[in-house]
């Protein structure tokens, strides 16, 4: 005999009827249908969380690349300005 945890839930009559119809269409018991529905919802939730986490990681990577490009551009401009200043100083002498 199975000893899986049990829960009691209240639901509107029309939802209960819909689940019974789904169970009948899928040739399952109402319990098996509810378990299948819940498993599907949990899997979709987990996939959504993984997708969101992946998107956040990609966004962070892109932001780091942009920051690096900006810093490289600033360093390049600073070096160019330093060279110009040095040339101007030599030109004044």
From TrEMBL:
GO terms for molecular function: sequence-specific DNA binding. SUPFAM superfamilies: Ribbon-helix-helix (SSF47598). One of its GO terms (biological process) is regulation of DNA-templated transcription. It comes from the Bacteria. Residues 1-44 form the Arc-like DNA binding domain. InterPro entries: Arc_DNA-bd_dom, Arc_rbn_hlx_hlx, Ribbon_hlx_hlx. Coiled coil: none annotated. This is Arc-like DNA binding domain-containing protein. It comes from Photorhabdus cinerea.
């Amino acid at each position: 005999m199975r000893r899986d945890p049990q829960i009691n839930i209240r639901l509107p009559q029309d939802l209960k009827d819909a689940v019974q119809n789904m169970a009948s269409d899928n040739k399952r018991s109402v319990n098996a249908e509810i378990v299948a529905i819940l498993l599907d919802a949990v899997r979709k939730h987990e996939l959504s969380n993984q997708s969101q986490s992946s998107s956040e990681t990609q966004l962070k990577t892109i932001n780091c690349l942009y920051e690096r490009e900006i810093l490289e551009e600033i360093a390049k401009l600073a070096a160019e300005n330093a060279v110009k200043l040095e040339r101007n100083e030599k030109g004044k002498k």
